[in-house]
Amino acid sequence: MQDIISLLGVGTAHDVCIVGICGMGGIGKTTVAKALYNKFHQSFEASSFLPDVGETMQNNGMVSLQESLLSDISKTSMTEVSHVDRGISVISNRLRCRRVFVVIDDVNQVEQLKALAIDRDSFVLGSRVLITTRDEHLLKQLPVDSIYQVQVMDEEESIKLFSLHAFKTYWPPNEEYLKLSRRVVDCCGGLPLAFKVLSSFLVQRSTKFWVSEIKKLQTIPPLEVQEKLKISFDGLNDDTERVIFLDISCFHIGKEMDLVKQILDSCDLFPDSGIEALIQRCLVTFNKKNKLMMHDLLRDMGRAIVGEKCRDSSGKWSRVWRSEDSVEVLRDESGSDEIQGLTIDMWSLNLEKRAELRTSIC
What we know:
This protein is an alpha/beta fold. The protein is 53% helix and 10% strand. A 5-stranded parallel beta sheet has the order 2-3-4-1-5, with helices on both faces. It has a two-stranded antiparallel ribbon with strand order 6-7. A two-stranded parallel ribbon has the order 8-9. Helix 17 links the parallel strand 8 and strand 9. Helix 8 packs across helix 9 (175-188), helix 9 runs parallel beside helix 11 and helix 13 (239-252) crosses helix 15 (271-280). The N and C termini lie far apart (60 Å).
């Protein structure tokens, strides 16, 4: 919050300021935006918080969003709008009358912002606009004054937040629960949504139950978390970007960017634009050594998408990423036409498995 407050410059700068908050699903963009809105909205002549803009537009249409914004900034009952173009005109006129604070949450198309008249020229000096999205490129199209990338929590922050949900205190009550909490937050990779979901399963449960759930978590991430993350995957521009995401989640995490691009380019997948799109949507990152990285829960979500067609038979998956499964597919000749790739780490196999593999290949 403190970082974004300094970018917004509330009370210190007198121009119009538009700030974007960007990050992967479940990382806390909406929570931070809502807290900032609650802190500052009374300092403005009018204010509006529009939640879940992408979903609201899909369910109720753009006109309903325009009417909600108009109702907030006009401080009157909902204003009826006959069509989108008319709504843009009315919103622009109303925004020029008051110094406002507007928060637009979970935007997934730049047209949504245009339909809400989110343009620097629409606002009175001193107004502030906060936009949350998973798509960094969308913010650059507007453009915004600053982009804040929300980061995952470190271990101590993670334990505090998880403990607040699970125990209603800022730290686990004893050493045993502290050790188990460390295992839980390690599985969650610093993602606040995952802490919230898992705590609902674990609150007031025995340590034996915790151990069982942690083992399950290590192989099957919570469905609610996966569904939240999958929104970003479903929102990719085309099938090529989805194929690249699935390939990276199964095969290429931790590999050098240039090598991955060579592999993807050999498959006619246009990696330069495809990987850039994934980075802008916070689905992949790269480290200082230029190696591709991905959050563990995003990786698990990608692999779950691959395996959902036939969970019990890896030979029917499009990608086989575990060496043991790859050996089994080759040994039993159980692979189908669905398989686009498989990988084997010879050093992870025992001598017996290596012998089986050599026999299968021969």
